[in-house]
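Can't paste images in this forum, so I'm doing it all in text. The chain is below; anyone willing to post the predicted structure tokens underneath?
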Amino acid sequence: MSTARTVADDGGSDGGNGLASFRRNIWWGLAGTVACVLGFAVGDWVLDPAVPAGLRALTGLSTAATIVTCGVLLGRRIRDEAPSTGWLVTASCVTGVAAAVPLALGNFGIWSIAPAAMLSVLVMFLPARRAWAVLGAALLVLPTVGLITALAMGEPDVGHAVWMPALMVLAFGPAMLGMLRGWQVAARLDDARRLAGQLAVADERLRFAADLHDIQGHHLQVIALKSELAARLAEADPARAAEQIREVQHLAGDALRETRALVQGYRRTTLDAEIANASKVLAAAGVEVLADVDTGLAAALPEAPRSLLGLVVREATTNLLRHSRATRAAIVLLPDGTGARLLIDNDGARPARPDEEARPGGRPAGAGDGTGLVSLAERLDAVGGHLSWTGDGDRFVVTATVAG
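Text version of the structure:
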């Protein structure tokens, strides 16, 4: 017999005290049902002085052993542990004695309780279809045994010998399997909850990595350009070189502050701020910038699309600084149906290498390594938007559309 799920002990990975408590409740419900039914039904007969004392003691002990064995097996099943051979042999022996003694003495009312209960516990270790098939077979076998025994003993009323075993199977079997099903559903829901938590953590890590790439890549590229310019001017024009170094210092401070804000979880990318920042750093790099932005449209966009457009501005600006020789650039935001369209245009696209032109689906000239834009394209697709980039001669255009 095999099981499909491993559940840790209380306090382990079973989902905390809630699921552990539910597991205990399931066990008490199942084991308590078996103990109460067997105890009350067989107890009166065991205490009947008309029954030989030796047989009463044997039946009482075997019934008690049946209750204990059922409890142990139920515990193993709920923990998804397979029953050992020793416990299976014990279950067969004690249940056989608990059933055989009353049946041999003609008590057709209680003999079937122990085998019906034990059988209902054992089928819980089987797959669902096989479990119901075994219960169906027991629904035929136990009444047949009762009927044959009653006829052999000359019992005038054989109906009681037939319907009582059937009633016990119907009472124990569905109840046991139903409560087990409830436990399995709860355990799977807990697994799903834990998996959802793990996915949320993974998504947050990816978001953090993307934001960190946007912040550091953008600022570091400008810092690199400014530092290179300062190095060239150090001897020819020390005053301008010092000015460039001060701008590098300012940009490094901005990068540090934004990184700290990102780590603390407070930073939010805004479209207006990104366009203003892009205009500033492009102008500092000697690029003439035209920004034509409908501020009312930008403010009316939902937060998620607006934030993504801000990231597109940042990534396109970083690529422009890193990979182009642009002298002019334009950033335009205009209505597009119920949403908005963002265009970032520059005149400094470098020619594509031969391997890029030959590669199907390769990046267009001026797109850099494409990693940032590809990632942003996927994120825009997720919110119903679209991102594309095209190169024509020395012109390179990034276009992003979002729904309003």
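The two ends are 57 Å apart (CA to CA). The mean pLDDT is 80.
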